[in-house]
Amino acid sequence: MPKGFNAWVGASVGSELGSGVLAFALTWVASGYGPHIAAAVLTMSIAPSVLLGLLGGAVADRFGPRRVMVVCTAALLLISGGLAAAVALWSTPPALLLLTAALIGTVSAFHRPAAGVFPRLFVADKTLGAAMARVGMASQIARTIAPPLGGLLIGMVALSGVALLDVVGCILMLVTLLLIHPPLEQPPASESVTFGGIVSGLKTARTTQGVPSLLLCVAIVAGAVIPAVLLGIPLAARERGWSATEAGLIEAGWIAGGILSGAWFAWRGTASKVWRPMTVGPLLIGAGLVLLALSSHWALAVASTSLVGVGVVIFTAHLFPTYIMLAPPLMVSRFQSLLIIVQQAPQLVINALIGLVAATVGAGTMIALAGGVAVLASIVVLSDKTLRTFTAEGPEGASD
Questions:
Q1: Any idea what the CATH number is for the domain that residue 136 is in?
Q2: What mean pLDDT, rounded, does the chain reach?
Q3: What pTM does this model have?
């Protein structure tokens, strides 16, 4: 891999560590006000990305992913620094948590589409799967450390100290982005950032074979896993008497499981017949979530979420490169923004529903239901002829 790519992946560890610790801390503090506040904070971090995501993709197509990432990283630095100062002045009222979540979500609407396609500027399509697996593994490492570290830091330095840690991660990423220059260039979109350009991307995605099914699979898995892990674990921990540190370890379990499978794909490459792992992944996710729902001890819950992590990475390590390879070169960021929206949009409804279900019948039942939903993605993959016949050209040594 090019040196610039490796430097960016390294910086991503620090950046993801800071943002992961902050995300856990925000959710944990919000859960202390009750399930409804915790759900509202998580929703506010998602809603701007859903509303502005297509615009973010159009901006990245027009101005290039690197420029967009530089601006967004600088904005995240200011948000985290402002949060640290605000906590020192006003403590942690729900309104501050909601505002912070909304600001982070707004910046993410522009940052995530650009970051999602950035690896394509460093490598050819035949090694894209391995490159994206390396990026995913770096993120997984940081996210594994983040929850237990967040559980520890929230008791030691409070939310203000956690926010300052995120500032450090943003500085590291900003410096790296300013120094590196990808060897490949993404041709800028000819159209301006207009409503017509956004609609054009949507129409193309709708008519590209295989893409609608991939988007549906992502919506199903993300709608089941993300709320069950990020919101369900803190709520289940409080129900079952687990500490913040134990809850952090449980949440880290799904990231740790992802590292194991991510390391394999980063080393050996992804499978060429993508339908097989994209079918197995959701089945493992469903089994892990059901086991988590039945866990009476935090150590068993860690094992359960580890299985979820393995299933998620097996699924996404093959879906994401396939999706990018199917996207037209001039619309790759718009396609990526649509993928992100599909990941997040269901949560606007599901988060509120999860808060209601958890308050009514308990977090365990809610998590078990999420496991049943995840399995539906396997059915979608098997029912799509394009995905069943699609063969990705993996790196040398990749196996089916």
A1: 1.20.1250.20
A2: 82
A3: 0.68
